[in-house]
Design goal:
globular, 4-stranded mixed β-sheet, 258 residues, alpha/beta
């Protein structure tokens, strides 16, 4: 299986020492095109475009201004260790072994508004550019049009390398919309995570995001290769609910957060 997850707004920029060599993003030249567009925008324009505070807009204007190639261990950091949101709290990359990271490098991809698709060990520089941003570019009015089929092509290439026909979708709707399903050469499995609250099971955003990270780590640690093996996922109190599940949408319930 190949897995996809979303990036995170929160970033950890502290240096990290890895047991494996870092890699370069496949679509870095395209990312540079987006950076050049953003470099022309003032902090006020970035604030309006991204719906962020003036302080955050100033920070990200500075980041775009400081963007430089080539990426090195001194000016960039591997993606899996840079993103620091709820998904990544569940994934806990810093405690993965060398063998785990090698498996993740082959079986995990991070969708990105700026970089398109990132492997876990791909170097990246800090940014804020969500996939849903309506950034006008030469290909259209937003990032979905900018990336068009390139993200799907990269996923198809890795699926072919793995000899797999299954994509495990652990990304948000905003990011997975960038994948062209008709062109994707795989069936898509999208797990659903529900927690018990106020007398019923429901999707609670914070818990669901963390659960996606927990499942990604579970697949990595257990070296899973078939979606049927996901039914054994029982981390942090979640259990497979066969009566609520379908082939493409397995449901996992949790009575109480651990």
């Amino acid at each position: 299986m190949l897995m996809v997850i979303s990036p995170a707004k929160d970033l950890d920029l502290e240096p990290v020492t890895l047991p494996l060599a870092a890699s370069q993003p496949d679509l870095l030249q395209h990312a540079q095109q987006l950076v050049e567009i953003c470099q022309q925008l003032s902090p006020a324009q970035l604030s309006s475009l991204m719906h962020i505070s003036d302080k955050l807009a100033g920070l990200n204007a500075a980041r775009f201004a400081q963007f430089q190639l080539p990426f090195t261990g001194e000016n960039a950091k591997p993606a899996l260790f840079t993103f620091n949101g709820d998904v990544y709290q569940g994934l806990q990359a810093e405690s993965l072994t060398k063998a785990d990271l090698a498996f993740a490098q082959q079986h995990l991809r991070i969708l990105s508004g700026l970089y398109g698709v990132l492997r876990p060990l791909d170097l990246m520089q800090a940014y804020r550019l969500e996939m849903g941003t309506k950034l006008s570019n030469a290909k259209g009015s937003d990032l979905y049009q900018f990336w068009q089929g390139q993200i799907t092509e990269r996923l198809n290439a890795q699926l072919a390398e793995l000899g797999s026909s299954t994509l495990l979708n652990l990304a948000s709707q905003e990011y997975f919309k960038a994948v062209k399903l008709k062109a994707l050469q795989a069936r898509v499995i999208t797990p659903v995570f529900k927690d018990f609250k106020n007398g019923q099971y429901k999707i609670i955003s914070f818990y669901a995001k963390k659960a996606r990270g927990l499942m990604a780590r579970y697949v990595i640690e257990q070296r899973l290769s078939h979606p049927e093996q996901l039914t054994a996922f029982n981390v942090a109190g979640y259990r497979y609910a066969v009566e609520q599940s379908s082939e493409l949408s397995p449901v996992f319930l949790r009575q109480q957060a651990e």
